[in-house]
């Protein structure tokens, strides 16, 4: 099986002003493409040649095939999660429901709540609690890696960090959202100020898609 760079649902400049076209040209057009190219070269004449990306990630040894396969999957998941800020203003209904100033005295969710909003409100009584915890985890994730919102087997949300190429696909957790905190994701736009990149990230999350992953 020959893997290809997945097509984006938006143009390279669609994430501006939060993520520049130049960053996308390097991050998506070069880094993501390089992982795809490396993976294709590495799996030729191996047992992994006809496996799906998910199968390779779960069965390959820790490196180098795993690293490239996992980075292809992680980046695809990340880029899919993002969309233009204009569209996100129109599609942010999940987030808007969650950010209403409701005081939850019990965990009986109103019928109009989505599954995602229900789960988030149960874990974080106020939206700022979730955003702060996720942002803090991403900021403190040492070195290169990913910060994830996952759904565990107890049907509870968790925020976890992974290093380098590691991904929740190697666990029983179900990934819902991720923030790429490798420096190549933000250095052109934000230099070494990871906190600025993380704050910008919230303006681009496609919450409809996150909801569909629950």
Secondary structure tally: strands: 3
Provide the spatial order of strands within the biggest beta sheet: 2-1-3
Indicate the percent of residues in helices.
Answer: 40-55%
Counted up, domains total: 1
* Mean of all residue-level pLDDT scores: 90
Q: Specify the CATH architecture.
A: 3-Layer(bab) Sandwich
- The CATH topology turns out to be minor pseudopilin epsh fold
User: Which CATH class applies here?
Assistant: Alpha Beta
Unreliable residue runs: 103-108
Give the CATH H-level superfamily. Answer: Iron/manganese superoxide dismutase, C-terminal domain
Structural notes for this entry:
The chain is mainly alpha-helical. It has a single domain (21-213), classed as 3-Layer(bab) Sandwich (minor pseudopilin epsh fold), CATH 3.55.40. 48% of the residues lie in helices and 10% in strands. It contains ten helices and three strands. The chain has helices at 21-43, 53-59, 65-81, 85-91, 93-98, 115-123, 127-140, 187-190, 194-201, 207-213; strands spanning 145-151, 157-163, 174-180. The protein has a three-stranded antiparallel sheet. Helix 1 runs antiparallel to helix 3 (65-81) and helix 2 (53-59) crosses helix 3. The two termini are 29 Å apart. Residues 103-108 have low confidence and may be disordered.
């Amino acid at each position: 099986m020959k893997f290809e760079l997945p097509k984006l649902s938006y143009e390279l400049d669609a994430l501006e002003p939060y993520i520049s076209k130049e960053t996308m040209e390097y991050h998506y057009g070069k880094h993501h493409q390089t992982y795809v190219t490396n993976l294709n070269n590495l799996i030729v004449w191996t047992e992994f040649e006809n496996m799906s990306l998910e199968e390779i990630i779960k069965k390959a040894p820790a490196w180098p095939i795993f690293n490239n396969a996992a980075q292809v999957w992680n980046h695809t998941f990340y880029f899919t999660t993002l969309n233009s800020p204009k569209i996100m203003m129109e599609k942010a209904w999940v987030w808007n429901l969650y950010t209403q100033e409701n005081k939850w005295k019990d965990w009986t969710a109103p019928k109009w709540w989505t599954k995602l909003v229900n789960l988030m409100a149960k874990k974080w009584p106020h939206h700022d609690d979730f955003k702060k915890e996720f942002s803090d985890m991403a900021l403190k994730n040492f070195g290169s890696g990913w910060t994830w919102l996952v759904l565990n087997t107890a049907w509870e949300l968790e925020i976890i960090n992974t290093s380098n190429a590691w991904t929740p696909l190697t666990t029983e957790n179900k990934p819902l959202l991720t923030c790429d905190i490798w420096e190549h994701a933000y250095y052109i736009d934000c230099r070494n100020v990871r906190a600025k990149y993380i704050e910008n990230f919230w303006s681009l999350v496609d919450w409809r898609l996150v909801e569909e992953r629950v």
